[in-house]
Amino acid sequence: MPALLFFVAFGVIPLIGVFWLSFTTWDGLGEIRMSGFDSWRAVLTDPGLPHALWVTFLVTALSWAVQTPASILLGTFLAGFQRYRAVLSVVYFIPLLLSSAAIAITFKALLDPNFGLGAGLGIPILVQDWLGEPVLAFSVVIFVVSWQFIPFHSLIYQGGVRQIPRSMYEAAELDGAGRVRMFFSITLPQLKYTIITSSTLMVAGSLVFFDLIFVLTAGGPGDTTRVLALDMYKRGYMANLMGPASAIAVILVLVGLALALLLRRIGGRDQTHSQLEGV
Amino acid sequence: MGLPLGAALAACGSSGPTQTGAGGGTGSTATSGGAGGKATYWYLTGQPNEGVRTRAVERFNKANPSGGLTTTTFQNDAFKTKIKTAIGAGEAPTIIWGWGGGGLRSYVQAGQVDDLTSWFDQNAAYKDRLFPSSFGAATVDGKIYAVPVESVTPIVLYYDKRAFEKVGAQPPQEWGDIMDLVKKFNGAGIAPFSLGGQSRWTNMMWLEFLFDRIGGPEVFQAIYDGEKDAWNNPAAIDGLTKMQELIKANGFVKGFSSITADSNADQALLYTGRAAMMLHGGWTYGSMKADGGDFVSGGNLGYMNFPPVSGGKGDASNTVGNPAQYMSISSKATAEEKEIAKKFFLTEMNSDAQSKDWVGITQVPIVKGVDAQFGSGADAPWQKFVYDTASNAKSFQQSWDQALSPTAAEVLLDNIAKLFQMSITPQQFAGNLNEVIGK
Known about the structure:
The complex is a heterodimer. By secondary structure, chain A is mostly helical. Chain A contains 13 helices and 2 strands. In chain A, a hairpin with a 7-residue loop joins strand 1 (24-25) and strand 2 (33-34). In chain A, helix 3 (48-78) runs parallel beside helix 7 (134-163), helix 3 packs antiparallel against helix 10 and helix 4 packs across helix 7. The longest helix of chain A has 31 residues, at 48-78. The two termini of chain A are 39 Å apart. By secondary structure, chain B is of the alpha+beta class. Chain B is built from 19 helices and 14 strands. The interface between A and B is large, with 32 and 40 residues.
């Protein structure tokens, strides 16, 4: 019951508030006036919306594509019980302990074309207009996001791999399977539900990416990295358009729900079955 | 009060390279003023300005033990969001500090700030002491809603005298010279202009001057007044075209879109000799002096008003930038709080003691005749230059992003970034902005 109470107080009520705000005109200062579908019309006819949706999708898809294989490999590697792996897993975990704002500021300083890493070490290839060229800026965002969150997902995969019964590997070894074969025939299939959990977290997380991109590129150059959450902030707090910002918030909620349901469907059919069956 | 306020606030210190000059403390630091503090006042961190603000409050609270000010300080960007949210929630401080212009207009339209016109009429002598140009951004529909305070900071064309000696050139006398200098400096391996393009408003300063020099202040005035299609003015299109010509000719340092102004990297490019010139606010003089080694003290920094464009209509004495800072009174405050705020304005803001403080940190307060206090120190010529520029300007255009409404300003900044990226044409730029005129 207390959980439900909290959910209503901090989840449902604000959500209803945002939904209601999306049918009003409010500059954040004065009176809130009902204005029907004005804000929705403004948002839905704005060519910036498909662009922001596309950017959000790209960030989500690309960061998933980069993080998942890296996290699985790293997680599998770290799942051994040797002491040096324990030390390494602590080292790998450090990026997750830093705040996104601090990471963004640090990378921004490192990537500065005049005073950054490239110029400092005299490595010409590192001297690029990292955050000023659309493709480079986008790549930097994906890289930094991955750098920050791979540790977390590695940890999940490490746990997943350790759950796999050793007897399976022993049996495979008797059959003469090599390490690669064992990885593809045992580890990967057994990680199915871990992959779905990790992916759900990644997708939900990327949808609301804000702080890192805000500090790193502020949506630039132009609006190359202007994701939906950033679009919402800029409309609401920079341009004083709370109505349209609320409409975007509602869209974000809907997209998030749809994606979560989709992921559940993909992995959901035999979710109730034990993974250990048939061992 | 154990610790002096100054010391307590200074303890927030500045951290990291991105914060130098622009603001030190993280988050907010609440400090309560003298005993019985009633009215509330929020202001910005970041030395040395913070110190001047703090000392003004200290003097006031000492003189008014029964009814002083309670203060809270914020870092620049945090303040902008916080003050807006607080006003919207009806929890604004008694004294609302800001930049005037479009932001103030939105407070006025929401009925959140008091009309101070009659107060100024009662205190005509106080009003007459201040720069007349400082009142434009405080005025909405003919009524004054804010007291101009603090210092004047026009946008200035800075240059590195060493770089000009190296290529054997003179500072530009008109726009054509700029294009010639671009070739010369690029040939010598020095970037012609430094620019922190990621911050967007840095790019805007160029357009402000080009519009003025080509078409005069009327061009932006028409936009400000909400005239239909005012961005399509031929002078505006000409200015936008010249801007893109300069970018195409590699007028700006390579990678300028990755450089932010809040990290002061653009200033560093100038004082380390990598860029020859920089168009930037008067506030950067102090930080270049502090961070640039002997660049300023060694007499290598040159400065001038933006040159004319030949055939242009604008007066060459015109300038743009921040005519002052502004303080309004929250309409939600009690009568008692409002009285304290007004007393603070009258006795402390723009007072001789405070003028001395601003002059002491190489700034120019908005008080007439303050040039007599500049003395003969190393910074006196700079202060005299700023004073003359501000007081002789036929037109002092407030920075566009402050003058326009927040809604229009955001669209403006977005499109300026795209214009500098060359991803939109001058005509597309004008078209996009015509859509938000008057909004």
